[in-house]
Here is the input.
Amino acid sequence: MQQAMGVEPSTCEISPALSELVSYLSGLRDRADLGVLERMLKNLELSRNDIAPACVFGARGYRRNTIARGEWFELLALCWRSGDCTPIHDHEGSSCAFKVIEGQGTEIRYERTASGLVCPTGRVMLDENTVCAAEDGDIHQVANMQAKNVDLITLHIYSPAIKQMGTYDFASGEAGESP
Here is the structure.
């Protein structure tokens, strides 16, 4: 699987389908409540056409395309080719919720062991319209494990925007940070 996490902003107008969400996010004065983000995404009727200007794929690894950003949030469209995946990571200091817009994602969940390694605890298949939420010490990896030439598009909210996240190496237990 390919790994990459370059932030490559996209300049796009806010779709009317996103206006209520962006209005809520723009009004934040502190970190968003994860439950509120999860409910808003579950109730959001959205298709690829609604975020088309932000549906840009990278040449290597998944691509993060900024739709809107404020002091307490970042709204992104992540575009994944088959085989693209995140590093194993946490969301320390940030609430993260995302919705699958097109395709099927896979989330692999991990926990720290007494030895210092991270161990997978389960896998969740994320079908279209599925919402996933994580914060602080939740450790996971997200991937597009679909057949070749089948894309995945997800809409992510981070509150506040992730400046760095803890990353983990499965085999060695080494922890690090990723921009």
About this structure: The first strand starts at residue 2 and ends at 3. The radius of gyration is 15 Å. The chain has two helices and eleven strands. Helices lie at 19-26, 34-43.
